Amino acid sequence: LTAMGEPSMDPTIAPDSTAQQDSLFSMMDVFLISLITGLFTYWFFFRKKKEEVPDLPKMQSVAAPVRDSSFIEKMKKTGRNIVVFYGSQTGTAEEFANRLSKDAHRYGLRGMAADPEEYDLSDLSRLSEIDKSLAVFCMATYGEGDPTDNAQDFYDWLQEADADLSGLRFAVFGLGNKTYEHFNAMGKYVDKRLEELGAQRIFELGLGDDDGNLEEDFITWREQFWPAVCEHFGVEATGEESSIRQYELVVHTDVNMNKVYTGEMGRLKSYENQKPPFDAKNPFLAQVTENRKLNEGGERHLMHLELDISNSKIRYESGDHVAVYPANDSSLVNQIGEILGTDLDTVMSLNNLDEESNKKHPFPCPTSYRTALTYYLDITNPPRTNVLYELAQYATDAGEQERLRKMASSAAEGKALYLSWVVEARRNILAILQDMPSLRPPIDHLCELLPRLQARYYSIASSSKVHPNSIHICAVTVEYETKTGRLNKGVATNWLKSKVPDQNGSSSLVPMYVRKSQFRLPFKPSTPVIMIGPGTGIAPFIGFIQERAWLKQQGKEVGETVLYYGCRHEREDYLYREELARFQKEGVLTQLNVAFSRDQAEKVYVQHLLKKNKENVWKLIDEGMAHIYVCGDARNMARDVQNTFYEIVSEFGSMSQPQAVDYVKKLMTKGRYSLDVWS
């Protein structure tokens, strides 16, 4: 051992140690080679994965345009030659578009209704590739001359487009309301702009007025529109209007109830598993934390509600609108079920017979008849004439069938009967079924025909600066007796009235989302504001005043804040009396002018108080560059207030009436005269 441990040239030892070294190196080599090979292999496969990852999105992006953004290709594929685009906020324009597209088959043509939001409208220039092609536009005007949400992109494209539409044939029907300043602005703009881009108008612009009889306006236009189409294309009607089902019924006897819709607007189970962002197709379920009666007397019920939006990531500004999805009264739903002898808890689907249609169902399916009639369908408004026409076939009494067909006809006598018996008598579908004992349609066809129940919009009565986690609503319940002696109730307001704050139940939940508005406080807090809002028109101004108070607390210079408010009786329906008195005491509300219309022999309204203070009003407008805001009834109040401003401007601005009108219109253009009105 000693010899081995020392440096020695003993030959018997040397070969042994060399062999051991050779063996050791070969093992080391194998180990190193294995290690290097292993590392290289691992790196190679790891690197392969790293390289392949970017390829996956590429594959997806190739497949992404599965959504058919070309309506031309879709029309060619399905043999359509008429496309009816709709700009719809409440569903009426969409309904009219569906009726027109359905009409086309009577003339040997094939139509399709289309949402402009789902397609690339620059393809309009290619429509001439299709024989006997025509584009029809049913365009509603929203708010103060604005396009509807789904037509905003189309409107933007029209403004910027320099396309050559010389091969396009078109017609436009506008849906508006004459009580609004910009009556049918969207319909008029689309009609004018398409012609400017070279398109050929084959029938005159139709202007429907919802303040009058929109249904009659549409029927009158439609009955002249189709003969013009026939003349242009050299075609003839192939027969009488016939009832063609758009959807087929499928009853589910053995279904997983987790796959059944229970009132959701979009994604199944979205009310159980809430995910932002929240919008029309994905509303947020807000808890009602306060619901108090505002008025001290009188027959009406005016209420203040507070919706909790904590953890929703919903943001709003003073002046925005909150949309709520109401539910129909269960007693009305039950009566429809009883009168039609239907088990309302039957689970079913209505599937579109046109497999190429983007709209697979008229409402979320599968669902029960009870859910459809409660959450998805409008059962309280008088049905339109097309519904009566389709239902007529089910009336076993010849007189009732003839009456229904007459009301659905374009004859003057039929129109007059529809106006008096349905519209003016405010007969809803239940009332019609009750008053026509032989009319017992299949409930699935009735569900197919009834329009969708729409969200209701309310001006938000709070400021997010003061109430970031809640949205306040001010509303009056609608309730009236019809000419037939029935008591009709407003769907949303009576449903909201029943929403009592509840710590753990679902009874106080309200599906809602926020719709942005142009009704905004001036950018500079020092700018004076004149607010005119009688009745529930005070709602956005409560938010405005709250915000001005908050700005003042932040040390900002806040300009004059002037309110003109009106109600019937001081002791009955003076809304937010205490809050307004407090704001005035704190110096935020610099002027509080209240008109009590029925507390004296002669009625006094907000416009009378404006006239009384006309000198001060003019000074604020002319010298203070004040912003004017009007909220409430469009039919009378907003018009009367505007006329009063014409008078004030004319008198103190030394202008003629036309000059004064022009002056006020310019204030509107500059955003210094804003309206948030309804009819």
TrEMBL record:
Membrane-crossing residue ranges in chain numbering: 24-45
EC number(s) per entry: 1.6.2.4
Annotated Flavodoxin-like domain residues: 82-226
Record's keyword terms, sorted: Endoplasmic reticulum, FAD, Flavoprotein, FMN, Membrane, NADP, Oxidoreductase, Transmembrane, Transmembrane helix
Organism: Machaerirhynchus nigripectus
PANTHER family: NADPH--CYTOCHROME P450 REDUCTASE, NITRIC OXIDE SYNTHASE-RELATED
GO MF, one annotated term: FMN binding
Gene3D superfamilies: 3.40.50.360, NADPH-cytochrome p450 Reductase, Chain A, domain 3, Nucleotide-binding domain of ferredoxin-NADP reductase (FNR) module, Translation factors
Cellular compartments per GO CC: cytosol
Cofactor field: FMN; FAD
Gene Ontology biological process terms, A to Z: response to hormone
Name used for this protein in its record: NADPH--hemoprotein reductase
Domain called FAD-binding FR-type: residue spans: 281-522
HAMAP family xrefs: NCPR
